[in-house]
Amino acid sequence: MKITGKVWKYGDDVNTDVIFPGKYTYTIKERSEMAKVALEDLDPEFTKNAAPGDIIVGGKNWGCGSSREQAVSCLKERGLGAIIAKGFARIYYRNCLNEGLPIIVSPEAVDAIEAGEDVTVDFDRGKIVTKKGEFAFPPYPDFVRGLIEDGGLIPHVKKSLGLK
Questions:
Q1: Are the C-beta atoms of residues 149 and 1 closer than 8 Å to each other?
Q2: Between the CA of residue 107 and those of 59, 72, 149, what are the distances in Å?
């Protein structure tokens, strides 16, 4: 699997209340509506202009805060290609896998990548290709790869069991 997308770059400690604004927690239930407000308080341009396949690049502790699943669902529904960060909050990391949203920890790549540039992620080769060079990351184990390819934990389990 390989993706290329425009980079939206943010800093450290971007929490779930910013990724999916907390003011919508109990009012927005539909995933398509969640996608429309993703990161609106942090970056109104993302809300207006992010396209399917785009890539978020974040600093340390991306997704800290509450375990709010909408903070992953809104980005997945938006069509985000991947998130590359210096580090992820543990629960956010797991929620991304459950949703089938590709995530990569690569502090070196984060430091090299500039906002707005196009970046290619080759998951098969474990490479992030930027204007400033290539950065390696460990390829996903088969189980995680299956979660991503099948669109998340629930579709993966259904497929594994032969259910529709």
A1: yes
A2: 8, 21, 25
Q: Which tokens in the block code for residue 97?
A: 């896998």
Query: Angle formed by the axes of helices 90-99 and 142-150, to 10°?
Result: 60
Query: How many other CB atoms sit within 10 Å of the CB of residue 88?
Result: 21
Enter the pTM of the model: 0.94
Task: Give the angle subtended at the CA of 24 by the CAs of 22 and 27, to the nearest 5°.
Answer: 140
Whole-angstrom distance, CA of residue 153 vs CA of residue 146 = 9
Residue 66 is part of which domain span?
A: 2-160
- What CATH number did the domain enclosing 130 receive? 3.20.19.10
Burial class (CB within 10 angstroms; exposed 0-12, middle 13-18, buried 19+) of 51: exposed
pLDDT in tens, 65-106: 988 899 999 999 999 999 999 999 999 999 999 999 999 999
